[in-house]
Amino acid sequence: MGNLLKVLTCTDLEQGPNFFLDFENAQPTESEKEIYNQVNVVLKDAEGILEDLQSYRGAGHEIREAIQHPADEKLQEKAWGAVIPLVGKLKKFYEFSQRLEAALRGLLGALTSTPYSPTQHLEREQALAKQFAEILHFTLRFDELKMTNPAIQNDFSYYRRTLSRMRINNVPAEGENEVNNELANRMSLFYAEATPMLKTLSDATTKFVSENKNLPIENTTDCLSTMASVCRVMLETPEYRSRFTNEETVSFCLRVMVGVIILYDHVHPVGAFAKTSKIDMKGCIKVLKDQPPNSVEGLLNALRYTTKHLNDETTSKQIKSMLQ
Known about the structure:
Blueprint: E1 5-7, E2 19-21, H1 33-43, H2 46-54, H3 60-68, H4 73-112, H5 118-124, H6 126-147, H7 151-168, H8 181-192, H9 196-211, H10 217-236, H11 238-241, H12 248-267, H13 281-289, H14 293-306, H15 317-322
Antiparallel strand pairs: 1-2
Helix pairs in contact: 1-4, 1-6, 2-4, 2-6, 3-4, 4-6, 4-7, 4-9, 5-10, 6-9, 6-12, 7-8, 9-12, 10-12, 12-14
């Protein structure tokens, strides 16, 4: 079936799939090409978005100066001039989240359709599974960067306050066309989230399930749990792990595993942490804890703070203590 997904050994199904996913080399088949090409248009911009976010420094100094000297017009203009291009960047990030959401929904449609099982889909649509993984990988990287950059919300709050003051005083606001009030409201909600991209994907997955009532919810949740299991098995099995030609693939797999767990937890009625969950949460957390601590703290925090059911009564004390 190509080289993204190879079934290496037979295994008891209750233990989960025992696969090697070659995230490094999957190529689309003819039947995948239409969706693959649509998603690829979005994904090719992902690295540039991350670079822009990584280099985002904010206008904290100019804003502080303007606030401390409210009567100094030059300082007000300087702060406004510094914030306008930054808001343009924030708008670009937000618009990219909308494109990513549309791409995810297209992939979910392809990877959950009847009559195939999640495992069959991952075998048949290897390149689409890889793109799904790439979306999750991007999402967690974006949110890790956003969480450590308070300038984003400070800049946008200043922009909105200044804009509303200009309106009251009937001052023409250069840059208002850039972000109108309705868009500004949506952007505010987006950036108020600790992990905005993950929230966007969780909401999109939940919406996908509710809009496709003729599709059993298990088609979606089993797709997610299968990917989580495959990533876990690859990471904890030296024979499989040694097949990675690039060390970056390890962090890629870790992020994908955490991403699908969070999506599963938001979409599945009882979540990822219940005893009936198809995800081996203890095994997944152990794999994370076996990595160098500084490399996975952000991922452990994502499980602690962006999942929905961790603090439910049905979650075992052992799992809760593993994440403390």
